[in-house]
Specification:
By secondary structure, this protein is of the alpha+beta class. The chain is built from 4 helices and 8 strands, in the order βααββαβββαββ. Strands 6-5-4-7-8 form a 5-stranded antiparallel β-sheet. Strands 1-3-2 form a 3-stranded antiparallel β-sheet. A hairpin with a 2-residue loop joins strand 5 and strand 6.
Length: about 140
């Protein structure tokens, strides 16, 4: 069956080591080849995935490391500088200045320590629905 050699965008992106959004941009720019299903969804052949992955990480490291910012599916990743941390019990209130706007997140005290967050360090606020998560590059 011909469709067996075709991958969904999310699968192809994972094999290549890029986000689905990046892969879509490559398709729209013409640097990645895809076919459309009757329903309008893009599919990418395994050979095209191999071609696109050629200059990227080796195939055995297709799974992104958790420390890589691109490994996180949230699209709203806002970089800024930690301006305030308030520790109380098991929680930490972390304020990040992002272009003159402050975002405050409540995270666990352990996460704050593990990320080595302190005033003046770069950090990202990841916004998904009503939650703000913090990651340090």
């Amino acid at each position: 069956m011909p469709g067996m050699d075709m991958l969904k965008l999310s699968e192809a992106a994972r094999h290549i080591g890029v986000s689905t959004t990046t892969l879509k941009q490559w398709i729209y720019k013409g640097s990645a080849r895809s076919v459309k299903t009757p329903g309008g969804h893009h599919r990418i052949s395994r050979s095209e995935v191999q071609r696109l992955a050629g200059g990227r990480r080796s195939s055995r490291s297709r799974t992104p490391r958790p420390t890589e910012l691109d490994a996180i599916s949230g699209r709203n990743k806002l970089q800024g500088i930690v301006t305030h941390i308030e520790l109380e019990g098991l929680l930490a209130q972390v304020t990040i200045d992002i272009g003159g706007h402050e975002i405050t997140s409540i995270i666990t005290r352990d996460s704050c320590k593990r990320l080595e967050l302190r005033k003046g360090v770069r950090a990202f606020a990841l916004i998904k629905a009503t939650e703000v998560m913090v990651i340090r590059p």
